[in-house]
Amino acid sequence: MNKITNHLPTAELQAIDAAHHMHPFTNDGELGQKGARVITSAKGVFLKDSEGEEILDGMAGLWCVNIGYGNDSIAEVAARQMRELPYYNTFFQTTHVPAIALAQKLAQLAPGDLNHVFYANGGSDANDTNIRMVRTYWAEKGQPERDVIISRWNAYHGSTIGGTSLGGMKGMHGQGSLPIPGIEFIEQPNWYAEGGDMTPEEFGLARAQELEAKINEVGADKVAAFIGEPIQGAGGVIVAPDGYWAEIQRICQKYDILLIVDEVITGFGRTGNWFGSQTLDLKPDIMTVAKGLSSGYVPIGASLVSDKVAEVLAGTEFNHGYTYSGHPVACAVALENLRIMEEEGIIEHVRDVAAPYLAEKWHELADHPMVGETKIVGLMASLALTPDKDARAPFASDAGTVGLIVRERSFANNLIMRHVGDRMVISPPLVITKDEIDLLIARARKALDEGYEIVKEKGLMVAG
Ligand SMILES: *Cc1c(COP(=O)(O)O)cnc(C)c1O
């Protein structure tokens, strides 16, 4: 058997990594200089690295390991499925039991009439599916000119050509001549950074009404869909003010615009319900899911599609699909993951135990001299770093300078906490216990304290 070994010396692994492995979203030159941290195993909420250090994973990998690491029954289901049917496709009038059973389960769990599943390998390519699906929907209804999709600046919808185009990350658009044609953007509902003197509610309403203005600018007869994350994840865990989503929903209905809700992070318990759409009372026509669907154990994503859209699509051949759409091992693992979430009451644990406790502790960090606001919904949380709390001021330094300092102190203290610009974000495994939350908060505070000292020393505690 080919044995991939963790037992080479760390420096040797790092050198091979630097020589041959191109990392996503990374400056490989810089990383090669210092060496990547080599993760060797994981259990529950803890990672272990090649030096034997135990790291609390405050991000659940990339927002995905909802049931925690090291679950044996998932490993067994995967092995069994690999022996029975490791692969077959669903393109040419064939199907298989894992794809059938998972589609049925997702239809049962999903809100409203999202009764149909189109499989993908992750969130990005599911969103690529969505672009083609909503445009095909309108073409089939005799309105092919309705092809514009409206999204938001600072949204994240993945890293494929389609996903990057739908996303509102300017740095990503800059690489590869994106977005593709037919994508329009409105501003995000980030009150803390952009709300000025308005109340959060006034600001949220104004930002939602930008959708109506954009529809009128483009022409309602040209707009196919609006896409949004219930809570922006990679954009910095931005929680829209109350009233924002109700207004977005109203506008979509008024102009008969399809609503695509990207639940790649908010799905499968993250917000304390099965879906963020339930937490925020949204009625999507299409929902994007991935990440927590398999708790990250294997790659899988999907578009959950309403009766309304599926009925129209059923009238044509949708020339679209991936070799691994509905991969049997991925479907079997996702089903087992959902069984565990249901039978072990993981959603209830988030809603009744972990989220309220984390919220209490997270908000206490607001007393830190460098913390301007703390936000949390379920088990996704953020805090804004600031040199001037009263003014909600940004730092004079380039966005992310201070955030990176705090992130590095967090990493050094064995907590994975991410920075998005000068916001710090966490999204721990949903199975996190109260004791583990105490440890997370203690390490986060230590990172903030140590980061604050460095920021002061470097003369960065200055408003911009
Ligand atoms: C991560 C993410 C994606 C992309 O998913 P991949 O599996 O990385 O392709 C899309 N949308 C949102 C909201 C995400 O957080």
Automatic annotation (TrEMBL):
PROSITE patterns: AA_TRANSFER_CLASS_3
Its EC number(s): 2.6.1.18
Gene Ontology molecular function: any one: beta-alanine:pyruvate transaminase activity
Signal peptide (residue range): none
Matches recorded under Gene3D superfamilies: Aspartate Aminotransferase, domain 1, Type I PLP-dependent aspartate aminotransferase-like (Major domain)
Cofactor: pyridoxal 5'-phosphate
Keywords, comma-separated and alphabetical: Aminotransferase, Pyridoxal phosphate, Pyruvate, Transferase
Family: Belongs to the class-III pyridoxal-phosphate-dependent aminotransferase family.
NCBIfam families for the chain: PRK07480.1
Record-given protein name: Beta-alanine--pyruvate aminotransferase
